[in-house]
Amino acid sequence: MGISQTVETAPSIADLVAAEATTSNTEVLQWVTEVAELTKPDAVVWCTGSQDEWNRITSEMVEAGTLIPLNKDLRPGSFLARSHPADVARVEDRTFICSENEADAGPTNNWMAPDAMKAELMPLFDGAMRGRTMYVVPFSMGPVGGAITQLGIEITDSPYAVLNMRIMTRMGQAALDGILPGGEWVRTVHSVGAPLEIGEEDSAWPCNDTKYITHFPETLEVWSYGSGYGGNALLSKKCFALRIASVMGKNEGWLAEHMLLLKLTNTETNKAYHLSAAFPSACGKTNLAMLQPTIPGWKVETIGDDIAWLRPGRDGRLYAINPEAGFFGVAPGTGETTNPVAMETLWGNTIYTNVALTDDGDVWWEGKTDEVPDHLIDWQGNEWTPDSGRVAAHPNSRFTVPIQQTPTLAQDWYEQNGVPLDAILFGGRRATNVPLVAQSLSWDHGVFVGATISSEKTAAQEGTVGELRRDPFAMLPFCGYNMADYWGHWLEMGETLGDKAPKIFQVNWFRKGTDGRFLWPGFGENSRVIDWVIRRVEGDVTGRETAIGTVPADGELNLDGIRVPEADMAELFAIDPASWLAESDLTEEFFAQFGDRLPGALQDQLAGLRSRLGA
Ligand SMILES: Nc1nc2c(ncn2[C@@H]2O[C@H](COP(=O)(O)OP(=O)(O)OP(=O)(O)O)[C@@H](O)[C@H]2O)c(=O)[nH]1
Ligand SMILES: O=C([O-])CC(=O)C(=O)O
Ligand SMILES: [Mn+2]
């Protein structure tokens, strides 16, 4: 039903909202009505998450030219979307934490006072959905009713966002029914910021040069304007599940983390372990989550690839869930040899964004196959041949696919109350300095290690690829409050967990030789590192203590069946005190910006490191 129909008594916006409403919760109805009155859409659709709804929206988008259906025999139920060439990644400089007090956002976030931000946003949202349909998308992060689960609603004028949300979350009626009067839920609003005049033709990827990704942690709201790209538009993901949830967790005694989650089973003893790992964007979470061990003795199953919520359980251990229901993964570099599990997962029902199209209606990206096709349509819709001199797929091109298609999915993904964690890994992309693996000397030292992670920039955020930046806990762009308070919260969690706390390790798959090649083969071979990690957890190996942590002693890392030259192995574990001292100076500078909010325990850890390095 549209308000553009020429009847004398055009229905009011409130009527439009109420007519199709699938809830009687007055708080929800009132909020949806307010947003509709502000944004002035032509129509309102309450999403139920049904297959019919999916079919209808995909057909409409194919007709509008926004989605290209892929060859049904090769990729059933799958589509390609090409974004605007300037709307391809998260926009961190346009991302704001709008807490009442600036100090609560901390020095690593852009901040604006909530009232000031709302005053800036409201004129933009006023009429932003004109000529478009407003979708009301209820979703659950985690199994509905679970101990760690949270609920939210995204209002969006992007059907692309709706389809992605249906894959990425438990979206639909059950989530809406779970929102009880007076209950806690997160309100998120998204507009591509491209209202249509009557008769104006739409573009395939509407967006706006002006972009705002704004978070209001005190009122549990997200307002996102101007971008259709995943991390900016799928508000369940980085906006809610990390930025807002990290604040909820701080207040309620849990943690929202940029972590993959996996289950490991020792095939001899049948004992199961759970491990989470925080690596910055495009630094290997999806790959590790789908690890295919190259050594015998381990079965690896996937639980999550990007976000984990952690909460102490009744038995005093730390429990984790993957709040999401799909993967929004980096396409380039994903291939049969690097990540066969992902390739199998992608058999169908997938939305591809900014990859290349083959002549037979399939998708391609750099690294998908060894041989490069002779002809493609590139991510911008142009003819492409291998001598075009440019990439066929955007470096941050992505696939969105339901987690349930993963052949290695652990039954634990369905666990209402999560899985107990045995180990936590922190990592980054470091060409130098950081060894392949090192165990932290204590929980506090582990928090220090997490707090001081730096990594080379990737294509997942705008900016210069390769530049080294601090990315504490891989949360630099995702922590919704003062990072120093966040470290304090982690330190407190260690006190709460005591000797039931998971063990903390640092890893680096990306160390390079002077010739620029990776020293470690990575991917499936990372199982050798995980194997050592679990043997440390069990106390089966002693390791060798160094200034920066405990590394495998000679012979402890299983290298059966691979050939890494001895010189490379030595370089992978080389710890150069001079460069670590130089790094300590940078850490001191980095810490200084937090002033007296920096927990004293981290200062102590820095002093301890320097003294172990012989300073
Ligand atoms: N050399 C090397 N490259 C790796 C390894 N694991 C992953 N990569 C590459 O790193 C890139 C990103 O990997 P992903 O697993 O998609 O990264 P992610 O952390 O899930 O990224 P986000 O979805 O942005 O959070 C891909 O190009 C991978 O091929 C590894 O062990 N060694
Ligand atoms: O948020 C996104 O757009 C994709 C992602 O996982 C990341 O960048 O970490
Ligand atoms: Mn991520």
Describe the protein:
β16 and β17 form a beta hairpin. The protein starts with 12 loop residues before the first helix and ends with a helix. By secondary structure, the chain is of the alpha+beta class. Strands 1, 4, 5, 6, 7, 8, 9, 10 and 11 form a nine-stranded mixed sheet that branches. Strands 15-13-14-26-30-27 form a six-stranded mixed sheet, with helices on both faces. The mean pLDDT is 96. It folds into three domains: 13-65 and 91-253, Phosphoenolpyruvate Carboxykinase, domain 1; 256-325 and 411-614, Phosphoenolpyruvate Carboxykinase, domain 3; 327-405, Phosphoenolpyruvate Carboxykinase, domain 2 (Beta Complex). It is 28% helix and 21% strand. The protein contains 17 helices and 32 strands. The active site is at 283. Its cofactor is Mn(2+). Its main location: cytoplasm. Monomer.
Features:
single chain; 615 residues; alpha+beta; Phosphoenolpyruvate Carboxykinase, domain 1; Phosphoenolpyruvate Carboxykinase, domain 3; Phosphoenolpyruvate Carboxykinase, domain 2; 3 domains; nine-stranded mixed sheet; 17 helices; globular; binds oxaloacetate ion; lyase; GTP-binding; metal-binding
Summarize this structure briefly:
InterPro entries: PEP_carboxykin_GTP_CS, PEP_carboxykinase_C, PEP_carboxykinase_GTP, PEP_carboxykinase_GTP_C, PEP_carboxykinase_GTP_N, PEP_carboxykinase_N. The chain is α+β, with helices and mostly antiparallel strands and 615 residues long.
